[in-house]
Amino acid sequence: QQQVKQSPQSLIVQKGGISIINCAYENTAFDYFPWYQQFPGKGPALLIAIRPDVSEKKEGRFTISFNKSAKQFSLHIMDSQPGDSATYFCAASPSGNTPLVFGKGTRLSVIA
Amino acid sequence: DTGVSQNPRHKITKRGQNVTFRCDPISEHNRLYWYRQTLGQGPEFLTYFQNEAQLEKSRLLSDRFSAERPKGSFSTLEIQRTEQGDSAMYLCASSLANVGTEAFFGQGTRLTVV
Fold first, then answer.
1. Beta pairing, strands A10-14 & A106-111
2. Residue B2 in contact with partner chain A when CB distance is under 8 A
3. Does the beta carbon of B1 lie under 8 angstroms from any beta carbon of chain A?
């Protein structure tokens, strides 16, 4: 049973455009929602994370939007750059220091 | 480099052999996690430790898998009698025990069972 569903599986965005990746979760005990970026051959690296007491969090070009009632959250990458081309994973856990449940990932390609 | 270190980076083994991977976490981190990632999938949780205590094991962790963290510092993950289905990237992460702290991942050990 997949507890975190991520879409789309792949995404192609023009340079300067907005990349949007969506995730939905089932477990209402989840209260920590990070996004990780992974380049080929590397481990995942934390981009940005949110807790359900806020509906939006922005760090530079990256924004998480969170909808607690719909049990959905999304990552927006503004002004997407070719260097953003990577696989992005959403994740969730009951708290920030317990094992994460990951989505299946979205492969983002930013083309010039 | 003071990040999470995993060794070896790559391992090719014959089916039926035993393999052991090592993870050195960030020095002040008392939580250590093992995940497995197959091609095109997100990491899947295997087990985790707080200091030397193993707190939880996933049902993905069959009897052929064992993990230790003997002195609360580095950890090892051993797979006995490897099978082709064990081929994957094995990721280690570490964090502080405080709620809301970030988990930092290592670069992983890629296992290929032939």
1. parallel
2. no
3. no
Comparing CA positions, the residue from B41, B11, B21 lying closest to residue B92 is: B21
Is the Cβ pair B56, A99 closer than 8 Å?
A: yes
Span A49-87, pLDDT tens digits: 999 899 999 999 999 999 999 999 999 999 999 999 999
Q: What residues does B59 pair with on adjacent strands? A: none
Q: Is B44 touching A (CB cutoff 8 A)?
A: yes
At B44, is the pLDDT very low, low, confident or very high (cuts 50, 70, 90)?
Answer: very high
Contact status of A1 with chain B (Cβ, < 8 Å) = no
| CA distance linking residue B109 with residue B87, whole number of Å | 10
Number of neighbouring beta carbons within 10 Å of residue B18: 11
Smallest CA–CA distance, residue B16 to chain A, in Å, is: 26
**pLDDT tens, residue by residue, B50-108:** 999 999 999 888 899 999 999 889 999 999 999 999 999 999 999 988 777 789 999 99
